[in-house]
Amino acid sequence: QARPVESGGGLVQPGGSLRLSCVVSRSTFSTAGMGWSRQAPGKERELVAGITSDGQTRYVGSAKGRFTISRDNDKKTLYLQMNALKPEDTAVYYCNSYPVWYLDWGQGTQVTVSS
């Protein structure tokens, strides 16, 4: 099965913004819940946000009020708009199915928040 391909990460100063993208080349993309998770060095992977096939969203912890998850089913692409970034947001960000992660993991995209 096709692995997700994440992009859009980078180095940003605290308070800055980034928009992550994830392309999932699967015919079932539009009918699947999708989510973003992240893994910081020395920590377990954690869910950041999820979106169901009909557009209902869920945000976890500090992502509430700062991050926005969205999807474009025609492009089979998942997005994560991240605003007001903090150093503690530094991690590798991954996308996968939601709420159960059943896709093979992609390479992720590195987000580093530092001055």
Protein topology:
Blueprint: E1 5-7, E2 10-12, E3 18-23, E4 34-39, E5 46-51, E6 57-59, E7 67-72, E8 77-82, E9 91-97, E10 109-113
Parallel strand pairs: 2-10
Antiparallel strand pairs: 1-3, 3-8, 4-5, 4-9, 5-6, 7-8, 9-10
Which stretches are poorly predicted, pLDDT < 50 over at least 5 residues? none
The percentage helix is under 10%
Decide which structural class fits the backbone: mainly beta
What is the number of strand segments? 10
Spatial extent as radius of gyration? 13 Å
Q: Overall mean pLDDT score?
A: 96
Tell me what portion of residues adopts beta-strand conformation.
Answer: 35-45%
The tally of helices reads: 0
- Main sheet record: 6 strands, mixed
**What does the overall shape look like?**
globular
Major sheet: arrangement of strands: 2-10-9-4-5-6
For the terminal residues, how far apart are their CA atoms? 39 Å
Q: What is the chain-wise order of helices and strands?
A: EEEEEEEEEE
Question: How would you describe what is shown here?
Answer:
The chain is mostly beta strands and 115 residues long. It has no helices and ten strands. Strand 7 and strand 8 (77-82) form a beta hairpin. The protein is globular. The protein starts with a strand and ends with a strand.
Main attributes of the structure:
115 residues; mainly beta; six-stranded mixed β-sheet; four-stranded antiparallel β-sheet; 10 strands
